[in-house]
Automatic annotation (TrEMBL):
The keyword Signal applies. This is Extracellular membrane protein CFEM domain-containing protein. Residues 1-20 form the signal peptide. Keywords: Signal. It comes from Clohesyomyces aquaticus.
Length: 111
């Protein structure tokens, strides 16, 4: 699974300048002031993950209510896209030496 996730991230990086691939953010921008987190869009994971651990934790705390929202599945993304977003967030932040305390199972529980 890690290889798949890294492959998706690599492809996303290659296509960053095009509209061919958009990382699903699952409505996370709705939980952020002006749809940004300290100037970072929620789909630009490297921007978020290069911040200090406290800011990464703050980001996760801010977006979790939107990920758990019943609107998320109805309007913004499927469970598969949610899994992809959380996995990529965790992997990218791990590459920056940061920990993301967010589990897919805890987010979809009850939805």
């Amino acid at each position: 699974m890690k290889l798949f996730t890294k492959s998706v991230l690599f492809i996303a990086t290659l296509l960053q300048g095009t509209k061919a691939f958009e990382l699903p953010t699952c409505g996370t921008e709705n939980c952020l002031t002006d749809n940004l987190f300290y100037g970072c869009k929620p789909k630009v994971l490297g921007c978020i993950c290069k911040m200090d651990q406290g800011r990464v934790d703050e980001f996760v705390g801010n977006i979790t209510p939107c990920l758990k929202s019943s609107d998320r599945k109805k309007k913004y993304c499927t469970d598969g896209a949610l899994f992809q977003y959380i996995s990529l967030l965790k992997d990218v932040c791990k590459d920056f030496g940061k920990n993301v305390d967010l589990e897919y199972e805890s987010v979809v529980e009850g939805n």
